[in-house]
Every structure is written in C-alpha cells, then in structure tokens.
Amino acid sequence: MTAPARPERPSIHSRASAGGAPAPRRPAARTTVFRRLTRNRRGLVGGVVVTVMVTAGALAPALAPQSYSAQSLLNRLKPPSAAHWLGTDGFGRDVLSRVIWGSRVSLEIGLVATALALVVGTAVGSVAGYFGGATDTAIMRAADVFLSVPALFLILVVVALFGASLAHTALVIALVTWAPVGRIVRSECLSLRNRDFVHAAEALGAGHARILGRHLLVNALPIVIVQASLLLGQTILIESGLSYLGLGAQPPLPSWGNMVVEGRQFLASAWWIATFPGLAIFVTVLGFNLFGDGLRDASDPTLRGHSP
Amino acid sequence: MDSGLRTYAVKRIGFAALMLLGVSVILFTIMRLAPGGPEAVLIGGEFSQEAAAQIRQRLGLDRPLALQYLGWAGAALRGDLGRSFKTGDPVAALILDRLGPTVQLTAGALVLALGVAVPLGVLAAVRRGTIWDTLGSAVALFGVSFPSFWLGIMLILLFSEVFHLLPPSGLSEYGREGELSARLRHAVLPTLTLGLIQMASFMRFTRSSLLEVLRQDYVRTARAKGLGGGRVVWRHALRNALIPVVTVVGLSLPTLVGGAVLTETVFAWPGIGRLAVGAVFERDYPVIMGVNLLVATVVVVANLVTDLAYCVIDPRISYR
Predict the structure, then answer these.
(1) Residue of B nearest to A3 (CA)
(2) How big is the A-B interface in CB pairs under 8 Å?
(3) Are A223 and A121 in contact (CB under 8 A)?
(4) Does the structural domain B91-278 have CATH classification 1.10.3720.10?
(5) B164: left (phi > 0), else alpha (psi -120 to 50), else beta?
(6) Burial group, residue B90, by CB count within 10 angstroms (0-12, 13-18, 19+)
(7) How far apart (Å, rounded) are the C-alpha atoms in residues B254 and A169?
(8) A303: which residues sit within 8 A by CB, 6+ positions away?
(9) Which residue in A290, A172, A158 sits closest to A230, CA to CA?
C-alpha cells in the first residue's frame, strides 16, 4: 500500500523536495561548507547565540553573580538595576543568576533527548530506506502512530505518572520526536540506495552493514546534523512547556519554564520575573533554528533562499 | 469511484482503526504500569493497606490488566467511556462539557493562522527577495521559536496589564453564560496566542509550494496567453499550490491540540486540555483514557480525510 506522498514538516519538506542527494563528501567539500556557513549571516548569528548560551550554561557556577537559591527578603521584587541586572524575584533571588543556572536544565534535557531521538531515528530510518518492502512499511506505519498522538498529551501522561526526573523527561521527549527524523533519513537513504556508488559497492561484495554504515549513513550525515540543530530547538520548547505545567525541574532548581510560572503571579507588579526567562527560551530556540537553517543552506546551495 | 480508490480507502480506514487500537493499548499499559495508583489521591494523607485494596477492588483495578482493557474497550465501543474516579460523573459528559471551548479556541486559531499565513505566503513567493519575503521569513522563524505559554503571558502583560484593553484570563463559569461580546473579548488573547504559533508552518508551506508551482509550464502558458499577473497567481497557481497546504493543516492538528493544553492553562480556559492536565495529576484513569482517545480519534480521522481528499483532488496521485 502506497500512501499518497505526504509533505513532511517544513524544514524537512523543503530539503526532500529538492530531490538530488549530495555527492559523497571529501575534506575539501567540508571546508567549503564551513566557509559558506561563515558567509551565511543568519547561520552565523545562530551559531554565535548557541555558543553563548551553551557556554553560559557550562560555566554557570563561575558566571552567575549569585547562587540560584540565595534568598534576600529585603530585596524582594526589585526592578532591574546595576546590582541586579534583571531584577529580583518574589524571594529576593537574583533573576540573572537563575536564568544562567536555568539554562543547564533546558540544555541538558534538550541535548540528551535530541541525541536519543537522532540515534533511534537514524537507525530506524536508514534500515527502512535501505531494505524497503515489508520492513519499510512496518517501520513507517509505526512512525505514523507516533506522529498521530499529540506529543504533549503522551509526554504529559508519562511524566505525570512516572515522575518528573530529568532522565524520564529526556527519554519521553525522544520517544515523540524520533519519528520525523526517521522519515527524513529514510527518504534520504531511499534516494541514495540506487546511486551508482552503492551498486558498485554491492557488486564488490560489500555486506548490508558495510553499505549502510560506510555509504548510506556517511552521505546522510549532513542532513542529520541539520536536523539535530532544529530538533534541539524543539526539545527545549517541549521541556519548557513541561516545566510550565509543573512537570519539569522542581523548585528550587531553576528551569526557564518554572521561572515563568513563578513570575506569572507577579505579572502586574514585577514584569521582569516572567519576561526574562521566557526571552532566554525564545532566543536560544531561535538561535538553534537559525543555525540549522544556515547549515542547511551551506550544505546544499541549491536550496538557498528556497525555504524561509 | 473506481475500484483502486475504493480498495485504497478501505485499507486506509482499516489502518486508522488499527492505529486507534494501538494508541489505546499503549496508553492503557503505560498508565497501569506507573508506580502508585489513584487510591493515594482519592484518600489523601495516610491510609492503610486494606483501605487501598478496598478502593482498588471497587474501581476494578485488582483484575488482570488484559481483562481491564477488554472491559474498557468493549464499553468504549458502545460509547460508554466509564465514570471519573474522582467525581463519579460519566467521562463522556465531562468531555462534552469541555469540548465547546476547545473547539472554539482551536478553530479560531486555525482560521486566524490560515487567514494571515496564506496571503503572506503568496506575497512572499510572488515578491521573492523583497521586504514581504523578509517579513514572511521572520514570521515563520519567530513562530517556531516562541514558547506558546510565554507568548500568552507577554500578550497578557501588554494588553491587560499595560493597556487594560482585554481581560487576562478566560471564560470562567459565569463567562460561559455571559453575553457574546464578553465571551469574544475573553477569546481574543488565547486565540491570538495559539494562532500566531500555528501561522509559521502554514506560511512556510504556502510560500515554498507556490514557488514550486510558479515554475511550472502551465503557469508560463497562462502568462503567455496574456493573463494578468494577479489572475495567474490567484486563479491558476494558488489552487494547485494549496493542495500540500491542506495536508499540512491536517498534519498540524496534533501540534494545535497540544498547543491548546498550554494555552488553556495560561488563560484558565475551561477546555479539554485543562481537563487532561487535571486528570493526569489526580490519576483519574478513565478521564485520561477518554480525553486521549478523543484527541487521537480526531487526529487519525483528520489524517484519513486529508489523505482521501488528496486522492480525489489530485488525479496524479497513485493509490495502490
């Protein structure tokens, strides 16, 4: 049974619709990609934003002016000033310090979930695309099931019932995000599988594992890397949504999502508490999206200007 | 309807039913495997093993898992979704009560998103490389980067706290019986939040799909015949360009409904999403199953209809 060609999500579709797969890459090609990326303004901006955020999270103990839990009831709800650049919250804690510490939770869960989703999606997608036939049908139908359940509902059920540890959250986010990755890798492998160099490898007696690993996956790698960047943005958004519902990191450990909730009650009197952590989520996700788009344009010039 | 299409439709419907079966089995198993049960929430505080066992027996949770599932599925097929553990109300009635606000919210957001995204996508594609294109890119990029709950809170800050133009949160009980203008005022901010988030993918798709179509021969033919630019775009190109957009609308339903959960929480909107969040925290299994089954059904049926519509609209698609 052949389902009608369904367009995939935007970032995916625009790549898949271009048809041609990239030629096997050599080191020279890689430097070109890097050079194109540095010339791509949006990609460069995204790269800088991402680097700043990751560095801030990694160096939080050194960078944050105060501890994330240091309370000072005399300094409650102070607006942004020289002493507290982003103001203080309802317990007199420094918002800037908490935003910096909060990046750790978001980035950790985002990175782990993305890595898991990429590994599963790539493995499953390449097997489906390479072997085709019944294997392909079975795998892609299973992916369809995961695409049909509203992700947030499934995550909500699992996290609420099994408890909101960082590992659980990352695991279940990966569970609902591997399917789109699987679809893209599959379509890439489908088109690569009939190229001459794959037939040549087969003729030379290469086994399935070797063809998959040395020929298909290596050539599908650029598209997987692009997906990684876009997926990181998505997983950070999902994590912050869970935190907002009270299912993420538990206070006093700050996460951007739970800081926004805490700020919600002071919205009328202290706008800065909810505004800055949310801004941090927005800027970080925007950074990953810009970087991903930039990478895509750089790795495949035929698409330049083709997708927004 | 020819036989090929009929076979395809039958297969596709069968698969949709299987998919619902799969979703319900997965959810049922996940819930019952979770540590702790509804008894802790129902009794509250300290309780004895006997009391817990008694409650589990009353709720039928002491039976084997497979029997519980079969019992639930059999009743569900007859339209009986069971009763809430917490309130004892029929689940179907609880859902029905919350359905209206969620449908209103998501439908409003969908209309708003399409109403802005399609014209903007067309402008971006036709005036490629101009300010319109840049504006379109910005909308698309920002839309996928905003955390919806934060966007909602920022809108409340701006329109309720600073300008005092609109009420910050929803449709409480009295609001639902209230007059139309009050209800509409309550709906503006939530609809705007959900709609803005959804706009991004529709706009991306309209643009890239129209760019694709504008390169086709028949568009050149239409231009060569001397038709005006506007007529070519709106009458000839857009019609074909919208086909994939229709599919994306169908596929975006999971995101839309998921987004509604957060939006409803931010605006205290009495819809399905908040019902689900509450039920999950209270371990109200029948309500969780009911809501999830409803949402999954809507999504699966929407995908089914999109796929079938696609085959009918576009004769080039082969259905084997």
Answers:
(1) B319
(2) 184
(3) no
(4) yes
(5) left
(6) middle
(7) 19
(8) A14, A15, A18, A296, A297
(9) A290
| Facing B145 at nearest CB: one of A245, A285, A308 | A285
Give chain A's end-to-end CA distance (angstroms, integer).
34
pLDDT band at A8 (very low <50, low <70, confident <90, very high): very low
Please indicate whether, in this complex, the C-beta atoms of B296 and A14 are within 8 angstroms of each other: no
Angle between helices B238-251 and B253-266 in degrees, nearest 10: 60
Question: What is d(CA A126, CA B158) in angstroms, rounded to the nearest whole number?
Answer: 48
Tokens of B183: 């209800």
Task: Give the number of other CB atoms < 10 A from CB of residue A165.
Answer: 12
Residue A17 confidence (pLDDT) above 80: no
Q: A9–B201: do the CB atoms touch at under 8 Å?
A: yes
Instruction: Indicate the pLDDT class of residue A39, thresholds 50, 70 and 90.
Output: confident
Number of Cβ within 10 Å of residue B80's Cβ equals 13
**Torsions phi, psi of A20, nearest 5?**
-50, 135
| Residue A63: partners with Cβ closer than 8 Å, 6 or more residues away | A56, A100
Quick one: which of B244, B251, B259, B264 has its CA closest to B190? B264
ipTM of the complex as predicted: 0.84
User: Does A54 reach chain B within 8 Å, measured CB to CB?
Assistant: no
Query: Could you tell me how far CA B275 lies from the centroid of its own chain?
Result: 15
Interacting residues of A154 by C-beta distance below 8 A, sequence separation 6+: A172, A175, A176, B27
**B174-210 burial, b for 16+ CB within 10 Å, e for fewer?**
ebeeeeeeebeebbebbbbbbbbbbbbbbbbbbbbbb
- A237 with A285: CB under 8 angstroms? yes
Backbone angles phi, psi at B201, to 5 degrees: -70, -35
The arithmetic mean of pLDDT across residues A224-250, rounded, is 88
| DSSP calls for A2-52 | -PPPPP--HHHHHHHTT-PPPPPP-HHHHHHHHHHHHH-HHHHHHHHHHHH
Give the separation between CA A163 and CA A160, rounded to whole angstroms: 6
- What does the DSSP 8-state code read for residue A240? H
